[in-house]
Amino acid sequence: MSILEGQGVTKYFGGLAAVSNVDFHIGQGEILGLIGPNGAGKTTLFNLISAAFPISSGEMRFKGHKLNGLKPHKICRLGIARTFQETKVFANMSALQNVLVGAFFGTPTHISGTDAAGEATQVLEFVGLPAMSMTPVKDLTLVNQKRTEVARALATKPELLLLDELMAGLTPTEVSESMELVTRIRDRGITILMVEHVMKAIMGICGRVMVLHNGEKIAEGTPQEIAANKKVIEIYLGVETHAGN
Amino acid sequence: MDISKFTSRKFLLVAGLVLAILVFLATFPIYGSNSAVGVWIIIMMYVILTVSWVMFSGSTGYMSLAVAAFFGIGAYTAAFLYPRTPGPLLPLPAVIIAGGLVSFIFALLVGLVTLRLKGMYFAIFTFGLSVLLYHIMVFYELQIQGFRGQRLTPITNQTAFYIVLVILVLTVLAAYLIRRSRLGLAMQSIGESEDAAAHMGVNTTMVKVITFAISAFFMGAAGAALAPKWGYIDPTVAFNMFYSFMPVLMAVFGGMRELYGPVVGAVIFAYTERALRLRFPYQYMLAFGIVLILIIIFLPGGLTGLVPKLQDKLRGVIARLRKGGQSEQHVNT
To answer: Residue B302: inside a domain, yes or no?
Structure first.
């Protein structure tokens, strides 16, 4: 069963089609990878789903609800949360305060202060951050800022989580930890759509991969199928060559 | 160290200090001279304007220069409801509340239209709003009313003092409660990253409009309290751009991180201005300009931003004394 479906999703910036007539669907409980060269329209598609800007044409449905015309905070309360490619943490606030924002405002129902604090502490532990730390998030390392963003998104109790380049800029160890974190999130029953350039992560944890190029969907399938797809290799993955040849 | 003991002691200290200030202010008209009471009315007025300005602009980062607009709306509401002839239409407390409410509603309408403007554009718009209202009232008085200015049923300095004191207490209380509430958290998150706040479920437009209007309520109430104290207002008095600029300077001067920052800034700024400007007009303005520049360059956290820095220093010194000679050697190497 699909949790999110898009039909003919299109976004123009001036005359340029950043996303062009893309049909897609995300199955309940899967991890769908979204890859493609820079400028392919991956983040634009994220921004359309989360309503950062309006769609030019086409429509998207989340559990049957039409998303067109909704404001970002409504999308969040419906159950779609996201992180950002360039982290957008609340830099001068502590991790707990960051996550509290999600816990207080991200759900459609009113939540008491005690419950919000409990929820925030719990998701911080889940992503592996100390809940009691008063350090402003801007002083944390990149990986911990990204974890704060994930925790903040999780605090909104999403059913679908959009992760925009969670692994970018991380060390190999941190990438492995983050892959494990994403799997654990999926195991909580949360569907995941992730944009990623780190192929190890895509190959390791995604059940299915979708490839965008110049705003159009050029391939879709299991990681193995994508890795063997001639068009994708040509445009994005590249042919393996050896130095000295 | 026992933290709960420390915090409760700190709490008692703050509560005692607040009580002492309130007692001082509440009894001041009994022993203070009439002119001193007048000076304190102005000081308290600036505290109200500064604290209510910080309430919205301090946390969201939206620089509003509409203080003069809301203050003037309050003042003119009082002028129409509390005229000298044919006499007051409403009792004074109702007039003050009306002044606040009219400003509140006006801010709500203006906010809905303009809070999508960001950064400099919002500042320029609010500046323009103050200027526009000034010119509308000039036009109204000269072209429609036929003469300049409004006369009000005057009130004594004592009455004005207590009214302004009540507004002051309510303003600080509201600012305190908002800071601690989820509304305060939402505003802070908007100030940090409005995009992220919206994507975390914060209805950013509503949060901004509501707090903009709440802050305007107190500005309007202040205007409505000051107008009958003066007994006469005209657009130059009511919509003076000074009311828009001074709260910004006072807040920057005092520091905005803590609630008491703007209070301290406004009191020092307004008191020294009143006390020194008449006696040493040139030296005063010169010295003040220099002090302000130094603070902006060296103390971006304002005057009260010094407190945590000094605390850190003090802790460092204490730690070093405790460790004794060994650590000193370590520091020297």
So the answer is: yes
Tell me the domain boundaries of chain A.
1-67+160-172+186-245, 80-157
**Is the dihedral angle over the CA atoms A46, A51, A52, A53 positive or is it negative?**
positive
Contact B201 A105 (CB under 8 A): yes
Residues A25-36: tens digit of each pLDDT: 999 999 999 999
**A65-66, strands of its sheet edge to edge:** A16-27, A2-13, A57-62, A65-66
Residue B114 in domain: yes
- Count the neighbouring beta carbons within 10 Å of the beta carbon of residue B100: 27
Q: Which tens digits make up the pLDDT trace of B40-92?
A: 999 999 999 999 999 999 999 999 999 999 999 999 999 999 999 899 999 99
Range of B176's domain? 36-322
Q: Share the mean pLDDT of chain B.
A: 89
- At B188-225, the pLDDT tens digits run 999 999 999 999 999 999 999 999 999 999 999 999 99
The pLDDT assigned to B113 comes to 87
CB contacts of B186 in chain A (<8 Å) are 101, 104-105
Which pTM was predicted?
Answer: 0.88
Q: Which residues of chain B from 151 to 190 reach within 8 Å of chain A, CB to CB?
A: 182, 185-186, 188-189
Residues of A in CB contact (< 8 Å) with B are: 50, 52, 71-73, 75-77, 81-82, 84, 88-93, 97, 100-102, 104-107, 113, 152-153, 156
Shortest distance between the Cα of B183 and any Cα of chain A, in A, equals 10
Rounded-to-integer distance, Cα A51 and Cα A73, Å: 9
Q: Which residues contact A63 (CB under 8 A, 6 or more apart)?
A: A3, A4, A79, A159
Residue B24 lies in a domain: no
Higher-confidence residue: B293 or A75? A75
CATH architecture for segment(s) A1-67+160-172+186-245: 3-Layer(aba) Sandwich (3.40)
CA distance B180 to B198: 20
Per the structure, how many domains does chain B have?
1
Residue B306 lies in a domain: yes
